[in-house]
Write the C-alpha coordinates for this entry.
Amino acid sequence: MSGRAQLMWDEAVTGYDFGPEHPMDPVRLALTRSLVRAFGLDRDVEVVAAKPAGESTLRLVHREDYIEAVKAASENPGAADGAYGIGTLDDPAFAGMHEVSALIAGQSVGAAEAVWRGDALHAVNFAGGLHHAMPGGASGFCIYNDASLAIARLLELGAERVAYVDVDVHHGDGVQAAFWEDPRVLTISLHEHPRTLFPQTGWAEETGADGAAEGSAVNVALPAGTGDAGWLRAFHAVVPELLADFRPQVLVTQHGADTHFEDPLAHLAVSLDAQRAVQVACHELAHSYADGRWVALGGGGYAVVEVVPRSWTHLVGIAAGRELAPESVVPESWRQEVFARTRQLAPMRMTDGRWPVEWAGWEAGYDPADRLDQAVLATRRAVFPLRGLLA
Protein backbone atom coordinates (compact mmCIF):
# COMPACT_ATOMS: atom_id res chain seq x y z
CA MET A 1 0.00 0.00 0.00
CA SER A 2 1.62 3.27 -1.12
CA GLY A 3 -0.02 5.32 1.59
CA ARG A 4 -2.40 4.79 4.45
CA ALA A 5 -4.67 7.60 3.28
CA GLN A 6 -5.16 9.75 0.20
CA LEU A 7 -6.56 13.27 0.02
CA MET A 8 -8.09 13.89 -3.39
CA TRP A 9 -7.47 17.48 -4.37
CA ASP A 10 -7.15 19.58 -7.50
CA GLU A 11 -7.23 23.35 -7.04
CA ALA A 12 -9.53 23.56 -10.05
CA VAL A 13 -12.45 22.11 -8.05
CA THR A 14 -12.90 25.61 -6.59
CA GLY A 15 -14.26 26.54 -10.01
CA TYR A 16 -17.53 24.85 -9.00
CA ASP A 17 -19.08 28.27 -8.57
CA PHE A 18 -22.75 29.14 -9.01
CA GLY A 19 -22.09 32.84 -8.52
CA PRO A 20 -21.59 35.41 -5.74
CA GLU A 21 -25.15 35.24 -4.40
CA HIS A 22 -25.29 31.45 -4.18
CA PRO A 23 -24.88 29.81 -0.74
CA MET A 24 -22.47 27.16 -2.02
CA ASP A 25 -19.46 29.46 -1.96
CA PRO A 26 -16.34 27.65 -3.23
CA VAL A 27 -14.27 29.50 -0.63
CA ARG A 28 -15.35 26.74 1.75
CA LEU A 29 -13.24 24.30 -0.28
CA ALA A 30 -10.24 26.59 -0.51
CA LEU A 31 -10.33 27.36 3.22
CA THR A 32 -10.62 23.67 4.10
CA ARG A 33 -7.61 22.84 1.97
CA SER A 34 -5.67 25.70 3.60
CA LEU A 35 -6.58 24.56 7.11
CA VAL A 36 -5.53 20.99 6.34
CA ARG A 37 -2.20 22.36 5.18
CA ALA A 38 -1.87 24.73 8.15
CA PHE A 39 -2.16 21.81 10.57
CA GLY A 40 0.57 19.95 8.70
CA LEU A 41 -1.73 17.09 7.69
CA ASP A 42 -0.14 16.95 4.24
CA ARG A 43 2.66 15.00 5.94
CA ASP A 44 0.18 12.27 6.87
CA VAL A 45 -1.72 11.87 3.59
CA GLU A 46 -0.82 11.42 -0.03
CA VAL A 47 -2.35 14.36 -1.91
CA VAL A 48 -3.60 13.12 -5.28
CA ALA A 49 -5.29 14.91 -8.19
CA ALA A 50 -7.35 12.36 -10.09
CA LYS A 51 -8.41 12.88 -13.68
CA PRO A 52 -11.93 14.10 -14.46
CA ALA A 53 -14.62 11.46 -14.86
CA GLY A 54 -14.95 10.62 -18.55
CA GLU A 55 -18.23 10.17 -20.34
CA SER A 56 -18.22 6.39 -20.02
CA THR A 57 -17.82 6.79 -16.25
CA LEU A 58 -20.53 9.47 -16.03
CA ARG A 59 -22.88 7.12 -17.90
CA LEU A 60 -22.57 4.58 -15.09
CA VAL A 61 -25.17 6.76 -13.34
CA HIS A 62 -26.26 9.60 -15.60
CA ARG A 63 -28.28 9.47 -18.83
CA GLU A 64 -26.46 10.45 -22.01
CA ASP A 65 -29.01 13.14 -22.89
CA TYR A 66 -28.47 14.78 -19.49
CA ILE A 67 -24.69 14.76 -19.89
CA GLU A 68 -25.11 16.40 -23.29
CA ALA A 69 -27.40 19.02 -21.75
CA VAL A 70 -24.78 19.82 -19.08
CA LYS A 71 -22.07 20.11 -21.74
CA ALA A 72 -24.24 22.44 -23.82
CA ALA A 73 -25.01 24.65 -20.82
CA SER A 74 -21.32 24.65 -19.93
CA GLU A 75 -20.51 26.10 -23.34
CA ASN A 76 -23.46 28.50 -23.45
CA PRO A 77 -24.94 29.10 -19.98
CA GLY A 78 -27.62 31.41 -21.32
CA ALA A 79 -29.15 28.55 -23.29
CA ALA A 80 -29.38 26.07 -20.39
CA ASP A 81 -32.29 23.64 -20.64
CA GLY A 82 -34.36 24.04 -17.46
CA ALA A 83 -36.03 20.71 -18.13
CA TYR A 84 -32.82 19.13 -16.85
CA GLY A 85 -32.73 21.24 -13.68
CA ILE A 86 -29.96 23.46 -15.08
CA GLY A 87 -30.30 27.24 -15.15
CA THR A 88 -32.51 27.32 -12.07
CA LEU A 89 -32.09 29.32 -8.86
CA ASP A 90 -30.63 26.25 -7.13
CA ASP A 91 -28.43 25.19 -10.04
CA PRO A 92 -27.52 28.19 -12.20
CA ALA A 93 -25.61 27.38 -15.36
CA PHE A 94 -22.05 28.67 -15.58
CA ALA A 95 -19.22 28.44 -18.08
CA GLY A 96 -17.11 25.32 -17.56
CA MET A 97 -19.80 23.63 -15.46
CA HIS A 98 -19.38 20.24 -17.11
CA GLU A 99 -15.62 20.25 -16.79
CA VAL A 100 -15.44 21.14 -13.09
CA SER A 101 -18.36 18.86 -12.19
CA ALA A 102 -16.62 15.98 -13.97
CA LEU A 103 -13.40 16.86 -12.13
CA ILE A 104 -15.11 16.66 -8.73
CA ALA A 105 -16.70 13.37 -9.75
CA GLY A 106 -13.31 12.13 -10.87
CA GLN A 107 -11.86 12.75 -7.42
CA SER A 108 -14.52 10.55 -5.81
CA VAL A 109 -14.15 7.86 -8.45
CA GLY A 110 -10.38 8.02 -7.99
CA ALA A 111 -10.83 7.68 -4.24
CA ALA A 112 -12.96 4.57 -4.74
CA GLU A 113 -10.43 3.05 -7.13
CA ALA A 114 -7.54 3.72 -4.76
CA VAL A 115 -9.30 2.10 -1.82
CA TRP A 116 -10.53 -0.89 -3.80
CA ARG A 117 -7.13 -1.58 -5.36
CA GLY A 118 -5.26 -1.15 -2.09
CA ASP A 119 -3.35 1.98 -3.05
CA ALA A 120 -4.82 3.55 0.08
CA LEU A 121 -6.85 2.30 3.01
CA HIS A 122 -8.81 5.55 3.33
CA ALA A 123 -9.46 8.29 0.79
CA VAL A 124 -11.13 11.68 1.29
CA ASN A 125 -12.73 14.01 -1.27
CA PHE A 126 -14.27 16.84 0.69
CA ALA A 127 -15.22 18.59 -2.56
CA GLY A 128 -17.55 15.68 -3.28
CA GLY A 129 -20.72 14.38 -1.70
CA LEU A 130 -22.99 16.04 -4.29
CA HIS A 131 -25.75 13.61 -3.44
CA HIS A 132 -28.87 15.22 -4.96
CA ALA A 133 -28.02 14.92 -8.67
CA MET A 134 -30.31 12.44 -10.41
CA PRO A 135 -29.59 10.22 -13.42
CA GLY A 136 -31.41 12.67 -15.66
CA GLY A 137 -31.18 16.01 -13.92
CA ALA A 138 -29.44 18.46 -11.62
CA SER A 139 -30.88 19.12 -8.19
CA GLY A 140 -30.01 20.84 -4.93
CA PHE A 141 -26.68 22.44 -5.99
CA CYS A 142 -25.54 19.12 -7.50
CA ILE A 143 -24.74 18.55 -11.20
CA TYR A 144 -23.07 15.12 -11.26
CA ASN A 145 -23.59 12.68 -8.41
CA ASP A 146 -20.01 11.84 -7.50
CA ALA A 147 -21.07 9.63 -4.57
CA SER A 148 -23.19 7.43 -6.84
CA LEU A 149 -20.45 7.37 -9.46
CA ALA A 150 -17.89 6.22 -6.89
CA ILE A 151 -20.20 3.41 -5.77
CA ALA A 152 -21.00 2.42 -9.35
CA ARG A 153 -17.28 2.25 -10.12
CA LEU A 154 -16.74 -0.02 -7.10
CA LEU A 155 -19.44 -2.34 -8.42
CA GLU A 156 -17.86 -2.25 -11.87
CA LEU A 157 -14.53 -3.25 -10.31
CA GLY A 158 -16.15 -6.27 -8.67
CA ALA A 159 -17.42 -5.14 -5.29
CA GLU A 160 -20.45 -7.16 -4.21
CA ARG A 161 -21.48 -5.14 -1.14
CA VAL A 162 -21.03 -1.40 -0.73
CA ALA A 163 -22.55 0.57 2.15
CA TYR A 164 -23.27 4.30 1.88
CA VAL A 165 -23.90 6.33 5.03
CA ASP A 166 -25.06 9.94 4.55
CA VAL A 167 -25.20 12.32 7.53
CA ASP A 168 -25.87 15.52 5.58
CA VAL A 169 -28.87 17.46 6.91
CA HIS A 170 -30.63 16.81 3.57
CA HIS A 171 -31.80 13.39 2.41
CA GLY A 172 -29.34 11.58 0.13
CA ASP A 173 -32.05 11.20 -2.48
CA GLY A 174 -29.90 10.93 -5.58
CA VAL A 175 -27.80 8.07 -4.23
CA GLN A 176 -30.90 6.28 -2.98
CA ALA A 177 -32.52 6.66 -6.42
CA ALA A 178 -29.43 5.39 -8.26
CA PHE A 179 -29.39 2.12 -6.28
CA TRP A 180 -33.07 1.73 -5.40
CA GLU A 181 -33.24 -1.62 -7.19
CA ASP A 182 -29.73 -2.87 -6.36
CA PRO A 183 -29.34 -5.09 -3.28
CA ARG A 184 -25.54 -4.83 -3.56
CA VAL A 185 -25.74 -1.27 -2.19
CA LEU A 186 -27.05 -0.39 1.26
CA THR A 187 -27.90 3.31 1.50
CA ILE A 188 -28.44 4.85 4.94
CA SER A 189 -29.40 8.50 5.29
CA LEU A 190 -29.90 10.47 8.52
CA HIS A 191 -31.44 13.84 7.74
CA GLU A 192 -33.90 16.49 8.85
CA HIS A 193 -37.52 15.38 8.44
CA PRO A 194 -38.90 15.83 4.90
CA ARG A 195 -41.84 17.81 6.28
CA THR A 196 -39.49 20.69 7.08
CA LEU A 197 -36.64 20.48 4.56
CA PHE A 198 -35.68 19.91 0.92
CA PRO A 199 -35.96 17.54 -0.88
CA GLN A 200 -39.10 16.40 0.97
CA THR A 201 -38.08 12.75 0.63
CA GLY A 202 -36.41 10.26 2.94
CA TRP A 203 -39.34 8.90 4.91
CA ALA A 204 -38.78 5.80 7.03
CA GLU A 205 -41.09 3.88 4.71
CA GLU A 206 -38.72 4.31 1.75
CA THR A 207 -36.93 0.97 1.97
CA GLY A 208 -35.90 0.01 -1.58
CA ALA A 209 -37.62 -1.65 -4.51
CA ASP A 210 -39.84 -4.66 -3.92
CA GLY A 211 -37.99 -7.91 -4.25
CA ALA A 212 -34.31 -8.49 -3.64
CA ALA A 213 -33.59 -4.81 -2.94
CA GLU A 214 -36.28 -4.41 -0.29
CA GLY A 215 -34.58 -3.26 2.88
CA SER A 216 -31.54 -1.84 1.07
CA ALA A 217 -32.62 1.79 1.57
CA VAL A 218 -32.69 3.15 5.13
CA ASN A 219 -33.93 6.58 6.17
CA VAL A 220 -33.91 8.24 9.58
CA ALA A 221 -36.04 11.39 9.43
CA LEU A 222 -34.97 13.54 12.38
CA PRO A 223 -37.20 16.17 13.96
CA ALA A 224 -36.19 19.79 13.36
CA GLY A 225 -34.18 21.01 16.33
CA THR A 226 -32.41 17.69 16.97
CA GLY A 227 -29.14 18.36 18.79
CA ASP A 228 -25.97 16.46 19.57
CA ALA A 229 -27.34 13.82 21.93
CA GLY A 230 -30.28 12.95 19.71
CA TRP A 231 -28.26 12.94 16.51
CA LEU A 232 -25.64 10.59 17.94
CA ARG A 233 -28.30 8.42 19.55
CA ALA A 234 -30.06 8.02 16.20
CA PHE A 235 -26.83 7.24 14.36
CA HIS A 236 -25.76 4.57 16.82
CA ALA A 237 -29.26 3.10 17.09
CA VAL A 238 -29.34 2.33 13.36
CA VAL A 239 -26.01 2.37 11.54
CA PRO A 240 -23.71 -0.08 13.40
CA GLU A 241 -26.25 -2.88 13.55
CA LEU A 242 -27.05 -2.61 9.85
CA LEU A 243 -23.37 -2.55 8.87
CA ALA A 244 -22.67 -5.54 11.10
CA ASP A 245 -25.38 -7.43 9.23
CA PHE A 246 -24.49 -6.22 5.72
CA ARG A 247 -20.70 -6.59 6.06
CA PRO A 248 -19.76 -4.16 3.27
CA GLN A 249 -16.51 -4.57 1.39
CA VAL A 250 -16.21 -0.77 1.22
CA LEU A 251 -17.82 1.95 3.34
CA VAL A 252 -18.63 5.22 1.55
CA THR A 253 -19.68 8.09 3.82
CA GLN A 254 -20.99 11.58 3.11
CA HIS A 255 -20.25 14.26 5.72
CA GLY A 256 -22.31 17.31 4.87
CA ALA A 257 -21.59 19.91 7.57
CA ASP A 258 -25.03 21.53 7.29
CA THR A 259 -26.38 19.73 10.35
CA HIS A 260 -24.61 22.43 12.37
CA PHE A 261 -26.59 24.86 14.51
CA GLU A 262 -25.04 27.80 12.63
CA ASP A 263 -25.97 26.56 9.18
CA PRO A 264 -28.36 29.01 7.49
CA LEU A 265 -30.26 26.53 5.32
CA ALA A 266 -31.55 23.93 7.79
CA HIS A 267 -32.92 23.39 11.28
CA LEU A 268 -30.83 20.86 13.18
CA ALA A 269 -28.74 21.93 16.17
CA VAL A 270 -25.62 19.76 15.91
CA SER A 271 -22.19 20.96 16.99
CA LEU A 272 -18.80 20.55 15.37
CA ASP A 273 -17.94 18.20 18.22
CA ALA A 274 -20.80 15.84 17.39
CA GLN A 275 -19.84 15.95 13.70
CA ARG A 276 -16.34 14.92 14.71
CA ALA A 277 -17.75 12.11 16.87
CA VAL A 278 -19.65 10.69 13.87
CA GLN A 279 -16.55 10.94 11.69
CA VAL A 280 -14.62 8.95 14.30
CA ALA A 281 -17.47 6.42 14.43
CA CYS A 282 -17.48 6.00 10.64
CA HIS A 283 -13.73 5.37 10.70
CA GLU A 284 -14.17 2.75 13.39
CA LEU A 285 -17.08 1.13 11.55
CA ALA A 286 -15.01 0.89 8.37
CA HIS A 287 -12.37 -1.03 10.32
CA SER A 288 -14.94 -3.20 12.10
CA TYR A 289 -16.96 -4.25 9.06
CA ALA A 290 -15.19 -3.24 5.80
CA ASP A 291 -11.55 -4.24 6.44
CA GLY A 292 -10.79 -0.55 6.87
CA ARG A 293 -11.78 0.41 3.31
CA TRP A 294 -13.25 3.88 3.67
CA VAL A 295 -14.15 6.56 1.12
CA ALA A 296 -15.17 9.80 2.87
CA LEU A 297 -16.85 12.67 1.03
CA GLY A 298 -17.92 16.20 1.88
CA GLY A 299 -21.37 17.51 1.00
CA GLY A 300 -23.48 20.45 2.09
CA GLY A 301 -22.44 23.12 4.53
CA TYR A 302 -23.10 26.83 4.19
CA ALA A 303 -21.47 28.32 7.28
CA VAL A 304 -18.42 28.56 5.05
CA VAL A 305 -15.98 30.06 7.55
CA GLU A 306 -17.25 29.07 11.00
CA VAL A 307 -18.03 25.40 10.38
CA VAL A 308 -17.13 23.74 7.09
CA PRO A 309 -13.31 24.04 7.11
CA ARG A 310 -13.01 22.86 10.70
CA SER A 311 -15.40 19.94 10.23
CA TRP A 312 -13.71 18.60 7.11
CA THR A 313 -10.21 19.18 8.46
CA HIS A 314 -11.18 16.94 11.37
CA LEU A 315 -12.33 14.39 8.77
CA VAL A 316 -8.99 14.50 6.96
CA GLY A 317 -7.10 14.17 10.23
CA ILE A 318 -9.14 11.11 11.24
CA ALA A 319 -8.59 9.44 7.86
CA ALA A 320 -4.88 10.29 8.01
CA GLY A 321 -4.47 8.64 11.41
CA ARG A 322 -3.71 11.94 13.12
CA GLU A 323 -6.88 13.04 14.86
CA LEU A 324 -6.84 16.70 15.81
CA ALA A 325 -7.77 17.23 19.44
CA PRO A 326 -10.95 19.28 19.80
CA GLU A 327 -9.12 21.84 21.93
CA SER A 328 -6.48 22.38 19.21
CA VAL A 329 -5.83 26.06 18.52
CA VAL A 330 -6.54 27.11 14.95
CA PRO A 331 -3.27 28.28 13.34
CA GLU A 332 -2.92 32.05 13.24
CA SER A 333 -1.78 31.94 9.61
CA TRP A 334 -5.11 30.41 8.63
CA ARG A 335 -7.08 32.94 10.64
CA GLN A 336 -5.28 35.71 8.79
CA GLU A 337 -6.07 34.07 5.45
CA VAL A 338 -9.74 33.84 6.39
CA PHE A 339 -9.89 37.54 7.16
CA ALA A 340 -8.04 38.45 3.98
CA ARG A 341 -10.41 36.37 1.84
CA THR A 342 -13.72 37.01 3.56
CA ARG A 343 -13.34 39.90 6.02
CA GLN A 344 -14.76 37.52 8.64
CA LEU A 345 -13.16 36.55 11.92
CA ALA A 346 -12.19 32.89 12.05
CA PRO A 347 -12.88 30.59 15.01
CA MET A 348 -10.10 30.15 17.54
CA ARG A 349 -10.26 26.41 18.28
CA MET A 350 -11.29 23.14 16.63
CA THR A 351 -14.26 22.73 18.98
CA ASP A 352 -17.60 24.30 19.81
CA GLY A 353 -16.89 23.58 23.47
CA ARG A 354 -19.14 20.53 23.65
CA TRP A 355 -16.52 17.78 23.74
CA PRO A 356 -16.93 15.09 24.89
CA VAL A 357 -20.45 14.75 23.54
CA GLU A 358 -22.73 12.61 25.67
CA TRP A 359 -25.62 10.54 24.36
CA ALA A 360 -27.73 7.59 25.51
CA GLY A 361 -27.53 4.27 23.67
CA TRP A 362 -30.65 2.63 22.24
CA GLU A 363 -30.02 -0.57 24.17
CA ALA A 364 -30.91 1.26 27.39
CA GLY A 365 -34.50 1.59 26.20
CA TYR A 366 -36.54 4.25 24.47
CA ASP A 367 -39.19 6.82 25.31
CA PRO A 368 -42.32 6.35 23.14
CA ALA A 369 -43.30 9.98 23.78
CA ASP A 370 -40.00 11.40 22.53
CA ARG A 371 -40.02 12.62 18.91
CA LEU A 372 -36.44 11.57 18.28
CA ASP A 373 -37.09 8.08 19.60
CA GLN A 374 -40.26 7.88 17.52
CA ALA A 375 -38.18 8.63 14.41
CA VAL A 376 -35.61 5.98 15.24
CA LEU A 377 -38.27 3.40 16.02
CA ALA A 378 -40.08 4.14 12.74
CA THR A 379 -36.87 3.39 10.84
CA ARG A 380 -36.09 0.23 12.76
CA ARG A 381 -39.64 -1.08 12.31
CA ALA A 382 -39.63 -0.29 8.59
CA VAL A 383 -36.25 -1.81 7.74
CA PHE A 384 -34.88 -4.16 10.33
CA PRO A 385 -37.43 -7.00 9.87
CA LEU A 386 -36.78 -6.87 6.11
CA ARG A 387 -33.16 -7.68 6.87
CA GLY A 388 -33.98 -10.35 9.46
CA LEU A 389 -33.13 -8.11 12.40
CA LEU A 390 -35.17 -7.35 15.49
CA ALA A 391 -36.77 -3.90 15.41
In short: Residues 181 and 209 are 5 Å apart (CA to CA).
